[in-house]
Amino acid sequence: MNAVSKTEAAAIDLMPTANAAPGALVMSPAAHFLLTLQERGVPPEQIEKLMDLWERGERREAEKAYNEALAAFQAKGIRIMKRKAVDFTTMKGRTSYMHAELDDVVQAVGPELSAHGFSRSWETSQAGRDITVTCKLRHRLGHSEKISLTAQPDETGGKNAIQAIISTTTYLQRHTLKQITGVAEAGEDDDGQGGAAAPLNAHAQGWVDYIISVRGTDKFAEACREGRAALTEDRAGLIAFNAAATRGAP
User: Fold this and answer.
1) Has this prediction a pTM greater than 0.70?
2) Dihedrals φ, ψ of 68, to 5°?
3) What is the distance between the alpha carbons of residues 177 and 73, in angstroms, rounded to a whole number?
């Protein structure tokens, strides 16, 4: 019999013996629910229906948690400062403006997103000259939403082909992240004055009153989604709406 090498001996020592106590298993809620049904002798066809009902309830709760967390995040009124100066001249004349870079957006929203249980990621695809970036926002309880934008390579300012693609990709990453989180760069809509102090119009006030009235009901998640969509272009209304959804008061 050949001698056992030190490596083989170490591997053998790590193998569990036949009578070794099994390690503790972490059971998911779904597996625990299924096991409970089986232990109670529920027929297989009934188990399938109950599992489907349970999973739908879990999805609704996850979406509700997503909407409540996003409302709490947006109520912070995060603003992104424009620190990057762009200045170049083409045949059409001179172009000069300020904007926030992708890092500015990530640094501004990242900590609060994490604090509210969110993670974000991007997917990029290209078809011909069209570059599409999709930003996905996922909550810790499992619900996620995504938004996509498409543009062609940015060939301004004397960029080469690779630089043009990178410029457009980071541009789309920046704007999809802003759109899905509902934040804005300072000066985009009210010159950085923080529109929360502006008086609400009747449309916005109606949504604020409505979200307060449905808090704690099964209509809350849908109301959050519809309210945010209806107030996308109304910075003051959106802030007031999210504050009401979070605290239950205007």
Assistant:
1) no
2) -65, -40
3) 14
The single-letter DSSP state of residue 21 is P
Q: How confident is the model at residue 75 (pLDDT cuts 50, 70, 90)?
A: confident
Are 42 and 213 within 8 A, CB to CB? no
Alpha helix segments (H runs only) across 116-234:
161-181, 202-213, 220-230
Q: Specify the pLDDT at position 88.
A: 62
Tell me: the pLDDT tens digits for 182-210? 887 765 543 333 334 456 778 888 888 88
The pLDDT of residue 12: 33
DSSP 112: H
3-class SS of residue 121: strand
Q: Residue 119: how many CB atoms within 10 A of its CB? A: 13
> What are the b/e assignments for 159-196, b being 16+ CB within 10 Å?
beeeebbebbbbbbbbbbbbebbbbbbbbbeeeeeebb
Q: What is the pLDDT of residues 216-239, one digit of tens each?
A: 788 888 888 888 888 877 777 777
Residue with tokens 């760069």: 185
Distance of alpha carbon 55 from alpha carbon 60, whole angstroms: 9
Sign of the torsion angle spanned by Cα atoms 147, 235, 248, 208: negative
- How far apart CA 110 and CA 178 sit, in angstroms, is 11
Euclidean distance between CA atoms 75 and 227, whole angstroms: 14
Q: What is the pLDDT of residues 128-171, one digit of tens each?
A: 999 999 999 999 999 999 989 888 998 877 789 999 999 999 98
Strands 79-80 and 184-185: parallel
Cα 183 from Cα 228, distance rounded (Å)? 12
